[in-house]
Amino acid sequence: MAETALGMATTLVGSALSVVSSAAKEEVGLLLGVQDDIWFINDELKMMSAFLRTTSVAERNTEVLKAYLELIRDLSYDTEDCFEEFLVMIKHRSMLQQCLSLGARHRIAMQIRTIKQRIQGLNQRRERYKLIQHRHTISDDVKGDFQVTRNFAALYTEEAQLVGFERPKSELLNMISRRTDGRNVVSVVGMGGLGKTTLAKKVYDSNELHSRFVKRAWITVSQSFSHIELLKNVIKQLLGGRVHEETGGEIFRDDFATWNSIQYAFPDHNSENCCVVVTTRNIDVAKVCSSHYPDHIYHLKHLEKEHAKELLLKKIHQTKDPQVFSQKKGPEEDKLVDEILKKCGGLPLAIVTIGGLLANKGINEWKSLRDQLPEELASSNPSVEALRQVVTLSYNHLPSHLKPCFLYLSLFPEDFEIKRKHLVNRWIAEGFVVRIGTARRTLEGVAESYFYELISRSLIQPSKLGILGNVKSCRVHDIVHDIAVSISREENHVFLVDEHTSTTSATEQTIRHLSFFAEKNLNKGLVLSGVRSITVFNKIQLAPFHLSRFKMLRVLDLKYAASIRSRKQDINIGSLIHLKYLHFPSFERHDYTLPRSIGDLKSLQTLDIGYSRLANLPTEITKLQNLRNLRCTNSDEIFCFDIHDYIECMTTVTTPICFIDNNNGEAACCFCFVTNSDGVRVPKGVGRLQELQVLEKVDIRRSSDKAIKELGELAQLKKLVVQAEEGTPKRKCKIFSMALGNLSSLRSFSVNASGLVDSWVMDSLISDSLPLPSLESLTLSGHLGKLPSWVGESVNLVKIKLICCRIKEVDALAELPNLILLHLGYEAYSAEQLVFHRHAFPKLRTFRLEDLKRLREVAYEEGTSSHLEGIDIYDCKLTLRLTGIKHLTNLREVSIRGCILANADMLREEVDAHHNHPVLQIDRVSIFVPVEDSLSELGENSQS
């Protein structure tokens, strides 16, 4: 694993160099008497970085080189920690003066000089053991800037539509359709990397399954799954508001206990309406799951040569067009492709992984990679270890800036769905993302390019797509995840606390990342002073612990945790001066106010306190000049809790400093501002947060005039969510409307005033605004009557959601050239008829209607909405007619639920005659038959 250690050392030296370069530019080093030492360290790290980038692993020196690289790794971590502390002190000038007067000057100077001595020692060892040899093979340098386009995700999401899966899909659907006397369980079995999950997903999303099963559920079961959470997930999907009906697409680990523990939750009869699909590597597990019907086991085979070649070329050339393959393919390339395919053995995971690695590389590099592929993959019974070698090869050839991003995935549980925004914001907080070249690109933009590059290399897999084709979340294949965990543990990158972790587990090395998958007490002997991130999953409730132990903490992510119960003296959030990412749990929050020490977190970039009891943001929040994301949403369930039941919590967060522990209940009751709003009051001075990209959710009524006006000064703001409740003065609405017009960078805007009867509040909030040139997503919730003119002039809008607006026409929206999604929710539209005229909605792909009480007819004229793919109508109570479906040339799906449908038979006929054969789902629908039709039928029957 010397190659892995080399890549890790190269990355860490680069990260340390970035921090030291910043410190070298500061004149404060002169005060400490170490300015020359800082420049020496800076220059040496530059040389060290250059040497590492040209180093190859000599076969006879791998163990010596590995030991040397581990010394570089530890030096890089310690250097970065030392200089991070140095830079934070510079930002806190008062702290610097205090430290200098208290004698800390000598300690800091000694640390810097010690680092200098360690570098000199490493240089001597390098020369002594002749460790550096020039690299003649594949370079890991970036071949140009990786650009993200909206079509990119669509290319890679079904790479995985893969190729060659049509016949297996058809055969699996036939198994699912067989009638049985009891529970129908179909098992898909095959080795890892063969595409079992891909096949199951293709079947799950197919039109054939949609037409047969109205409701469906898809579950991923990891090694540390919870039975209760799993069954709750099934129920939520089957009974939730937007779920589609009844097949279980289940993915289980390869053990009997998993299946035996949950099988009885599924019906044991009525196989025509219920089927469970299981994927497994273990044939014995498949036999147990499908024990009643052994012929319901599907053995997935390797890809045929033709399909394997198509898939590899698709990955190499990053296109779906087969003509491009033939145009780019020369005779030498064709021969190499065949040789590489032979070594891949028809395994899709191996093919897409090596294909992503070959992209944008020359013939010589192709030959080198061909020679490094394990021969075992081509055997009749390849092992998982051979696949792991392919993934490791892909990791070793990652550009240095992507390696820490990939290893960071080891902090998440196996098969976990990771949200893109969550991941990239954490990468930024960890310092993995560096803006180089084009100054206009934001850190978020650079981080997303890293994300999509990992997708292009098939190291992460898209899970959910947005309406624009962008990837909303991703997963990591279990084999790829195993590699990330293995490398991270070897490099001492992470310490994972799971069910198998012994309470006596310890390591002499400093841990950098700590992730909890299970409730365990940590060994007191663990070295935690260098921990940079703490992540908690599975709604674990941590025992009280002292955050002061984690002096270098950058990321505290409790998004997926249960509440933390701790004593006041255990938590002092303001002491975490390096913290850049702070995310509290949702829904079970018991926080009523933030401590004033939050203002000491000068480096904080992301603060997320979603769905808490928080009503006000303290003034100290305006000191956080580096803040980029601020999400604070007051829980809409505030009316249903007893405050005394929730009082055992983080007391420095819940109560002001003047209250003592014995009076927590009374203090919180007095201090908490009980409100029906789910927004929070923002303080004066919010305009100083010039780096802010995301702000939600602002309560207009309780925020001051000055604070509302300052919202217009947030020039970098990309997303804004606001709330206006009963009693909001018209004056404040006007001030906000003027501020909104100044936000030229805004891409997403949402305003909620749905609890108000009068329309003047919404009119005042948004009527005076100018067209927002960058706006892509708009949500308006509240009585309007008529949309403001600027909405129709915001030509970049792609998503619009209206609730309670009571508009009577949509002509202004119909002309928007880029609108893709239109959602008309509760009482958004007050007319009885909605007509899609000729040439209206030229780019619309998805149209949703929900809970419209007055609507009687939706009609599509010829030549309208040529891109419309999906119509979703839910809970429209009055008699509804849907006509003109035949004019929608690109229609794929029509879903009608909870409605009274007047022309059900006619609609079915129109759908059946449609050239696209769209899926029609009708669920919990009452069929309305007009009286005159019933009488005529009765007359005809009597005459006969």
Give structural notes.
Residues 531-636, 678-920 form the Disease resistance R13L4/SHOC-2-like LRR domain. There is one protein chain. The chain is of the alpha/beta class and 944 residues long. Among the domains are: 2-129; 166-299, P-loop containing nucleotide triphosphate hydrolases (Rossmann fold), CATH 3.40.50.300; 854-944, no CATH class. It contains 32 helices and 30 strands. The strands form 4 sheets. It has a 17-stranded parallel beta sheet. Strands 2-3-4-1-5 form a 5-stranded parallel beta sheet, sandwiched between helices. The protein is globular.
**Percent in strands:** 5-15%
User: pLDDT under 50 segments (min length 5)?
Assistant: 136-146, 148-160, 241-253, 566-570, 636-674, 931-944
Number of strands: 30
From the N-terminal CA to the C-terminal CA, the straight-line distance is: 87 Å
The coarse silhouette is globular
- How much helical structure, as a percent, in the residues? 25-40%
Summarize the main sheet: 17 strands, parallel
Mean pLDDT: 79
CATH class of the domain at 166-299: Alpha Beta
- Counting helices, strands and paired strands, the structural category is alpha/beta
What's the oligomerization state?
A: single chain
Number of helices: 32
Question: What integer value in Å does the Rg equal?
Answer: 30 Å
Q: CATH H level of the domain at 166-299: which superfamily?
A: P-loop containing nucleotide triphosphate hydrolases
CATH architecture annotation of the domain at 166-299: 3-Layer(aba) Sandwich
What is the CATH topology of the domain at 166-299?
A: Rossmann fold
